[in-house]
Amino acid sequence: MSSSYTFPAGVPVNPVRPIPDGEAPISIFGYIPNRAFAIVALVTFCVAVLGHTYYLARIRGTRTFQALMAFGALCEVVGYAARLSASKNAFIVVKFVVQYFFIVVAPVFFQAAFYIALADALRLLEGGGRTLLGFNPKILVAVMITADVVTTIVQICGAALIGVAESSTYRDGKSSTVTSDQANDILLAGLSLQTASFLAFLILLAVCISRSRKTSIAARLPGRFTAILFLASLLVFLRTTFRLAETAEGVFSYASRTEPLFACLEYLPVILAVLLFMAFPLYKLLPHASHALSDPEQHRFDMQAETSNVSNPTLVQPGSKLADGK
């Protein structure tokens, strides 16, 4: 490691010499992850996984939505488990990479769930929702999910290159093929495109809500559904905007070195959005409430219906005629 290179101010330095393989000379987090915060995040996202998995198993009509929400929450669990492990040793590079990958990827599944929720709600309306959206809702889902996948891949590549560049610089005093500033620009580009695409979704959602208020009841989105979806989307958008601002400041900036900002603007908005749809499940918000129960539940319902039909049999006296005269 070059003795002429100055470490970033305030960033924890690895006290072990020589630096073990797989470890960085400094914490790429920019701080030592707080153990208590990691535990709280881990527990709350575990609750979210259980809640959305319950709806996934019980309700057939919203299983795609619930599967995306449950899997996204599971990604958060893996990410915060890696942060919890990193609280013991924040210099192991793979722990940073794992937590970053899963915490960045998770909102992509939540956003996809939001797109599908809006598309499903529009599909149940008169005209399939085309009068509100202006085009087939399936196109919205396909375009938005594709944009999220591409921009997330760009972000992950940028973050990985930052880790490689910083580790190489501080360990050997040599620059890698891609500098940390260049890698940060790649990450920034991915975040900028993701923010722009999700902003476009919010605008389309607002347009649908506005048009819905001016149409007939048969072509109108339910108010509680739009309120919950818009609020959850705003919360996730807040998280994405924070990530964009953090990255724009540069590597080891104040925002990236301040874990309370991460807790308030990354963890909190996302968990609130996820728990919001757990408290108000989609099958209760969508119009017509036509989502079937799972097979065992439906079987019990059918049996109850059959029992009620024969509970009051018609008694016919010997020699009497039926009402139809036969």
UniProtKB/TrEMBL annotation:
Q: Where is the composition biased (Polar residues)?
A: 307-317
Region feature (Disordered) = 307-326
UniProt key word Disulfide bond: no
Q: What is the lineage of its organism?
A: Eukaryota, Fungi, Dikarya, Basidiomycota, Pucciniomycotina
Pfam family membership, one: RTA1
Q: What is this protein called?
A: Uncharacterized protein
Q: Where are the transmembrane segments?
A: 36-55, 67-86, 98-118, 139-166, 186-209, 221-240, 260-283
- Is Lyase set as a keyword in this record? no
Top-rank taxon of the source lineage equals: Eukaryota
GO CC, sorted alphabetically, is: membrane
